[in-house]
Amino acid sequence: MAYQTFQQEYLQIPLVTRAYTTACVLTTAAVQLELITPFQLYFNPDLIFKNYQVWRLITNFLFFGPVGFNFLFNMIFLYRYCRMLEEGSFRGRTADFVFMFLFSGLLMTVFGMFVSLVFLGQAFTIMLVYVWSRRNPSVRMNFFGLLNFQAPFLPWVLMGFSLLLGNSIIVDLLGIAVGHIYFFLEDVFPDQPGGGRWLKTPGVLKALFDTPEEDGNYNPLPEERPGGFPWGEGQRLGG
């Protein structure tokens, strides 16, 4: 019974969020069980282009370090904000969401070559948080019960938290930069005088991922509670 309940809840998670978070958890589990090592996963342009170890272009986005506070913190934010994007502004547009993943991942990979980062998963999470926060500017956030602010400040609060923990903020800045580029090209530039839509989802992705019918069992997370945990709860203004 418990297994069936878990399976039902798991299958209710939208496709992209389910696939990405599952891949991250399985990758970490494989490292913890010593089936693979981080040295087989990290981003290394020389090994990718000279030794043709192309899997590193993907695996460096899947490993968030050993199981611990940092891993759980990243997994919670990844799951929540990825799911809310997919169930919110990308609902019924799975192909567009996949294209955002591909575009942002490619841009992050290019930038990553110049900042000597070996794992880009945390930066990718910050990118998702940034895009969600810009598309939900009226949501009030509460961080650890200490800070109250509007959603667009969330990526910067996370960067400050990272700084307090003694971590490099290059990761956060990379995620914010890539998130801003995507948000500007997708949401801002098309409405500017002389602007246009530069980001167009390829037809092959639409054919693969977009379906015309709604799932009657679809149960989206409520966006008016974007955090769901003490470090990210919020409510819409005027709500």
Automatic annotation (TrEMBL):
Pfam families: DER1. The chain crosses the membrane at residues 57-79, 99-132, 153-183. Residues 229-239 have a biased composition (Gly residues). It is a multi-pass membrane protein. Signal peptide: none annotated. Residues 215-239 are annotated as: Disordered. Keywords: Endoplasmic reticulum, Membrane, Transmembrane, Transmembrane helix. It is found in: Endoplasmic reticulum membrane. Belongs to the derlin family. Functional component of endoplasmic reticulum-associated degradation (ERAD) for misfolded lumenal proteins. May act by forming a channel that allows the retrotranslocation of misfolded proteins into the cytosol where they are ubiquitinated and degraded by the proteasome. This is Derlin. It comes from Huso huso (Beluga).
